[in-house]
Amino acid sequence: MSSRTKHHATIALALAITAAAVHAQGAPAAPPSSKAVVLKGKAPVNEKVLDVKLPRPKEGDLANGIHLIVLEDHRAPQVSFQLLIPGAGGYFDAASSVGLASATAAMMREGTVSRSTTQISEQLESTSSNVAVGTGMTSLDATVSGSALTENLDKLFDLTADILLHPTFPEDELAKYKTRTKAGLNQNRSFPGFLVQELFQKVMYGDDPAARLLMTPDQLEKVNRAAMVEFYKAKYVPDHAAIAFAGDISYDRAKQLVESRLGGWKKSGSAAVAAKDPPAIGPAKVWLVDRPNSVQTNFIVGTQAIERTNPDFNVLEVMNSVVGGGPTGRLFVHLREEKGYTYGAYSGMNAGRYRGTWSAQTDVRSDVTEPALTDLLGELVAIRDTTIPAKELQDRKRSLVAGFALSLESPQQVLNYYVTSWIYKLPADYWDKYPQRVMSVTAAQVQSAARKYLDPARMQIIAVGDGKKVEAILRKFGKLELYDTEGKKVMGVVP
Q1: What is the CA radius of gyration of the chain?
Q2: Residues of the chain with pLDDT under 50
Q3: For residue 420, which of 54, 114, 163, 492 sits 20 to 30 Å off, Cα-Cα?
């Protein structure tokens, strides 16, 4: 649900690692961290659980299948919207045309029957508006999003409808897109952060579409105008779409706007599409990308976890916050504040419409690869084997609730919550009860979740570093597979 620009190459570093794998492979686990961040000051704390009732959007279904969601907020003369088109995401690219969905979305703003890409940009600039079309390599949906001052909303939506309904995919703009994109794709292989994420995705998902990170230069070259036109006609249909508005607009006004501009967007009769869970991950292993002359080792250590609708979602949120949720999480405190191994260490989970991942991530100097990895795994042993102190658990839960409370200041973020509710068919009061669900999580539940999901038998260690410096060290932690920076498996050991 985020806007994308022409230079679309942001890599979200996931995060990953487990614990008992250390014991299983013979490397000693570090004892739980005994120190803590020293707080210079303390604010008064209200122990009452946050009690909220979010403003309810008004919703309805339009004749062509679009589900309309409107959250009114007249505090500022501005309106934002997002249109979700299920089935048009990169997840559904065929193996022979990986990257087609991303290219199609990117090219839709580059020209219509009545407007050139320059005219589109000039109109947006002159009205201080924006509109973007995008999707991710593993996204199930394509998204059209935009915002404008209330007085310019009609003009923006006229333009949006034109981009959505009448794209021309001009050949000259496609050539420019390929030139821009190829430069970034080639450069990515020089970044260790990209290499470790690429291998992590492959380890987690194998040949499943969920493993995709970015298209390759060769895949980009295969994209052509005819394929984009065919993809657009087949996938950009309103049958199962939703459009959500937030800001200075009423439901009736939004309905009139959509019906007048998108009423000609006809149903295709296509069936709803769905993702499937990827194959189960294999046994614990170590994976190394040999990057000669690297001065640091980049780690992602993790495993498959849950989908968004899993009943354990909030428990895992709390568990993750304890382990690596920001600068007060255990990994950050232990590896950075106490040991000085790294500038940061974090964990996170990725839970969507298919089984996602939990992971921890850090980058350390090559000479501290072994103690840093040992200590990281030690923290995972601790979360599995030791009950969380009551104060630490309470602080982490309150931190999650506080972040949620702050997010409610943004009408767009509140709308995002309701879009999430629509995607996952969540109860109407799901977000009202979010603080209570988080605050009711117990230490026993967190420990049970850690034992269930941070299973050392399935934990994978993925690293990028100078093989001459770290290969022998990493072999202490388990069976190792070696890769080069082009993503190709290497037999034997680093010479």
Answers
A1: 24
A2: 1-34, 36, 39, 41, 43-44
A3: 163
Tokens representing 486 are 């082009």
Q: Give 3-state DSSP helix, strand, coil % of the chain, rounded to 5.
A: 45, 15, 40
Query: Given this model, what pLDDT does residue 20 score?
Result: 32
Residue owning tokens 């990895």: 373
d(CA 263, CA 268): 14
Taking the C-alpha atoms of residue 136 and residue 89, their distance in angstroms, rounded to an integer, is: 6
Question: Three-state DSSP class for 148?
Answer: strand
How is the chain split into domains, by residue range?
A: 21-32+277-490, 58-193+203-262
Quick one: pLDDT at residue 38?
A: 54
Strand 285-290's sheet: what is its strand order? 345-350, 357-365, 296-304, 460-465, 285-290, 480-483, 489-490
**Spatial CB neighbours of 58, under 8 Å, sequence gap ≥ 6:** 69, 70, 72, 251
Domains 21-32+277-490 and 58-193+203-262 share a fold: yes
Architecture in CATH of 21-32+277-490: 2-Layer Sandwich (3.30)
Please identify which residue in the block is written with the tokens 């009205």: 127
In CATH, the number for domain 58-193+203-262 is 3.30.830.10
Q: Residue 290 forms beta bridges with which residues?
A: 465
pLDDT at 280: 94
